[in-house]
Write a structure and sequence with these properties.
three-stranded antiparallel beta sheet; alpha+beta; 95 residues; single chain
Length: 95
């Protein structure tokens, strides 16, 4: 399930959507809510690569959901990573 697009590793959103449908049809609501929340993190909060829920999103979700850490650090790390990736493509630097 792990894929890489444009140098970004993650899980295909389509696979997670299929998993959500399967869990809903089986009535496994706790797991359903976890995977659905991961999709929300990937599609709304940390949209980076179309069709891919990247590892930064998964780390932020796990830190917020399971460890009850503040998601602010993950948001800042993701923003820095995004800026760094954009600057790398244009041969610029973040100061």
């Amino acid at each position: 399930m792990k894929q890489s697009r444009n140098g970004v590793a993650g899980i295909l959103r389509k696979c997670l959507e299929e998993k959500v449908e399967t869990l809903a049809s089986q009535g496994e609501w706790v797991s359903f809510m976890d995977v659905l929340a991961l999709l929300v993190f990937g599609m709304i909060l940390f949209l980076n690569v179309d069709g891919l829920v990247d590892l930064a999103v998964i780390d932020a979700f796990l830190a917020y959901h399971h460890i009850k850490e503040s998601s602010v650090i993950a948001v800042l790390a993701n923003a820095y990573d995004t800026f760094d990736l954009r600057c790398e493509k244009s041969s610029a630097r973040i100061v």
